[in-house]
Design goal:
Elements lengths: L2 E3 L6 E3 L3 H5 L13 H21 L8 H22 L7 H16 L15 H22 L1 H9 L6 H51 L5 H42 L4
Antiparallel strand pairs: 1-2
Helix pairs in contact: 2-3, 2-4, 3-4, 3-8, 4-8, 5-6, 5-7, 5-8, 7-8
Length: 264
């Protein structure tokens, strides 16, 4: 645990630990599974459903308000996520990819929303479930469109290479596609949200402790630095939260496209 020595009476500032930030007590005593991340995950799903319902239940020819915002999100996912990897099949999977993007984005933004202040994806179980769902869909589509043998053949033996290369390449391709890809799909999102939450918690606690708990002439500048860094990292974290939602949806599109089209 990182400690900073405060000048007041020899007291010590203790940095937040992962257990303090992520090992949360149940909201309802005795219901162990119902914790803050679960509540925020459900609330995020309700928000996404509410936004899309408000936008498209009675769509206008000239979009305004919520419809305008959600349509911009739709076009972004369609043009930047779906079409580059799915081509003519993009429209078939827009519902899935749009849901993934908005759900992960709201999950992440919960980390900077006052009172909530916890990114849902910083608990590995949540991105793992989404990544596992995409993995199962990828395997199903690969078997359906390429056949079981064809799927593994196209994955492990790309055409046009010298045969001795396959001795090294085939195991690497198998591990990459069947084990490493779904693992990194989940961990990339989790690790970024976990680290971001730790940084924000650390600098915000530095600012609060040195300015309000142990305010001294020497400690005040440290508290100010903590506040400034919290503001800077909050802005940076919002960018990372959007970027990780985009990357998660993009990788899902890429995996689906690889199963639909053997040449990928």
């Amino acid at each position: 645990m990182i400690t900073l020595t405060a000048p007041a009476h020899g007291d010590e500032f203790s940095a937040p630990t992962p257990n303090e930030l992520f090992d949360l007590a149940p909201i309802i005593p005795g219901v162990e599974w119902f914790t803050k991340p679960v509540l925020l995950a459900v609330l995020s799903a309700v928000i996404v459903i509410g936004l899309t319902w408000a936008a498209f239940s009675k769509p206008k020819l000239v979009p305004r308000g919520v419809q305008n915002v959600v349509e911009y999100g739709y076009m972004f996912v369609r043009d930047q996520v779906a079409r580059p990897f799915l081509g003519k099949d993009a429209d078939r999977f827009m519902g899935l990819l749009l849901t993934l993007f908005f759900l992960v984005l709201v999950w992440n933004l919960m980390g900077v929303v006052p009172i909530a202040q916890f990114p849902v994806a910083s608990h590995i179980a949540f991105p793992a479930v989404l990544a596992l769902s995409i993995y199962v869909l990828k395997i199903y589509l690969g078997f359906k469109h390429q056949g079981v043998g064809g799927y593994f053949k196209n994955m492990m033996f790309p055409p046009g290479l010298p045969k001795p290369i396959y001795l090294l390449l085939s195991p690497i391709e198998f591990l990459s596609n069947m084990i490493i890809a779904p693992f990194t799909h989940a961990v990339r999102l989790f690790a970024n949200m976990f680290a971001g939450h730790m940084l924000l918690a650390f600098f915000s606690m530095v600012g609060f402790w040195f300015l309000f708990e142990k305010l001294t002439p020497l400690g005040a500048p440290v508290g100010v630095i903590g506040v400034v860094m919290t503001i800077i990292f909050t802005g940076f974290e919002i960018f990372i939260q959007f970027l990780q939602a985009f990357l998660f949806a993009m990788l899902a599109s890429m995996y689906i496209g690889g199963s639909l089209h053997a040449e990928h």
